[in-house]
Specification:
- There is one protein chain.
- The longest helix has 19 residues, at about 40-60.
- This protein has about 60 residues and is mostly helical.
- It has helices spanning about 5-20, 25-35, 40-60.
- The two termini are about 25 Å apart.
- The protein has one domain.
Length: about 60
């Protein structure tokens, strides 16, 4: 299937899923406070964070 993630990305997502609390508030807060000030294109990286959170939620079987 074209929408399937390659194996290394599936493993990364699985590990990220385990590391992220059920509520993504802390992840988003730390991204905003600790990482975002150092990013060259923060708006793009905000979108990347949104995609990862969405993928985690899909993997957990719920939607936003």
């Amino acid at each position: 299937m074209p929408n399937e993630l390659p194996d290394p990305w599936r493993a990364f997502l699985r590990d990220l899923d385990r590391a992220v609390a059920p509520d993504d508030t802390v992840l988003r807060q730390r991204h905003q406070e600790e990482l975002r000030p150092y990013l060259g294109n923060p708006a793009r990286e905000d979108l990347t964070l949104d995609l990862w959170v969405e993928a985690i939620e899909e993997r957990r079987g719920r939607s936003r």
